[in-house]
């Protein structure tokens, strides 16, 4: 062995030491820097520490570390209206020239007149009609392109930002922290599954196959000889309230050990995740920050948090006080 | 640095070299030892090589390496009857004392008299009735226990083996080979999803969340105050034929780049996987081995392979001749 080779080995070993020091430093750093120290952050970290401690009484094997997250109001904004509703309204306007009949028919007439009270007055049936008119009648691939394009081009009213920037920085850190600890992170949302899948991997690090949501029926058919999945104007599944535990079992086949939500629509998911003797964790994001985001709970029509807030109190679930617990809300708020 | 440390570094480096040699040796070994050399094995390996070759024209990123497998007749036996039907018949017999009315009502009467012709004469409606009577009315957890217990206790008629031993060794190797090359392996079966999930991880290395199948509706409810998912006597989804591409999109949200089946029930899945400009692979297991397993295709009522065999020929899909291509069929056949 000549000196050159010896020096190379030394350099290589030094590099290894440096690299492993860097890893240790990263590991010993705060994995949740946008969370203020307090009960919420402590509860999260204590839970993760106990289920990942090998040989500990509460150890959970990695394969069973399933964590489910609601999307609207838990990972990104939902006020003043669900992002997907904003999408539907924009799509009605874009498609109106092809549908002259919409000028005189509710709820389309109100949408075209920017009359939100009129839209809301059409009730659940009217909203469903809007969704069907804008979300179906095309192939799955086409719809994904439409959703992706709209999200690139659209901005919200309050922050004038693309919706994909209006995601909660502390929750992004929480997703990464859980994954770094062997958790598999899922979205379980009342929103449309194909509205989320085009962007969740890039924004949340959650791949399409870990996104569960509401869906319309689809049909496999040959379109000009080409196998195609067409979106039909018929609901397949509404992934909200009682539907969340149902879809979790249907898609994952395991009970989550941790569940995260922000509204009464998430209550049953949190009940399902916590109704076991195994270690479990439930967290509710309480929107208390009118200045940096929005403040709403029991009286809100969008993302109402009422029963779940009571039950969280009774059952000792972690309730995040957005104003108090989060150093910043969005990634762009330094 | 003293000599001791230098020696330690040297030993460490030697160890590294040894380890990496071992890895190379393992890698250069045959990943598909139960496959005879021939067109099928070559086609599989050429496909895997090209999609995993970094910088190659056909490289597919790991996240998109989705492979979907039918179960009955593709990964385990399906003759002389689907395993799940054998389960249903056994369950009728086990539950008969609680249902005196079954003695006089078809299809139960024929089941209790071991009259398979009578059972079959009850048609699709009768079979559905059998499935509902034996697969629903209990919680998801209870059903999983029942299915698991039955599989532990039951043996097939021809080989006198537990069904979970009647899985195809070459396909087990193929599953492992694909996973070792970054593929995510899924089951997409006409069989009941909850009948498969209790054992697929142990037998195939496929976790519950990567098992897609037919399903009944479930309902979230409080049973004695405890959140429970009850199985209802109503079909939710039949995951066969046209249903396979539909469920693949619903559950995975990506098109597979490789699909594996054995019957006309898999045809649309294979069409869907291959109707792209991306690299893709389709394989059909043709049951040609009456001695070691069963021989059946165009005329069989179980696992009929007719249209898909024609289309495989036209489209150049890989058709495995079980008798010729497989050195052994089951793990116990050394």
Largest interface: A-B, 36 and 36 residues
- Structural class of chain A, by secondary structure, is alpha/beta
What assembly state would you assign to the polypeptide chains in this entry? homodimer
Q: Please give the domain count of chain A.
A: 1
Strand order of the largest sheet of chain A: 4-3-2-1-5-6-7
**Rounded to an integer, what's the Rg of chain A over CA atoms?**
23 Å
Report the mean per-residue pLDDT of chain A as an integer.
92
Largest sheet of chain A: 7 strands, mixed
The CATH architecture assignment of chain A turns out to be 3-Layer(aba) Sandwich
Supply the CATH superfamily name of chain A: HAD superfamily/HAD-like
- Beta-strand residue percentage of chain A: 15-25%
- The tally of helices of chain A reads 13
Query: Which percent bin holds the helix content of chain A?
Result: 40-55%
Main CATH class of chain A: Alpha Beta
Report how far the terminal alpha carbons of chain A are from each other: 54 Å
Q: How many E strands of chain A?
A: 7
Q: Any idea of the CATH topology of chain A?
A: Rossmann fold
Order of helices and strands of chain A: HHEHHHHHHEHEEHEHEHEH
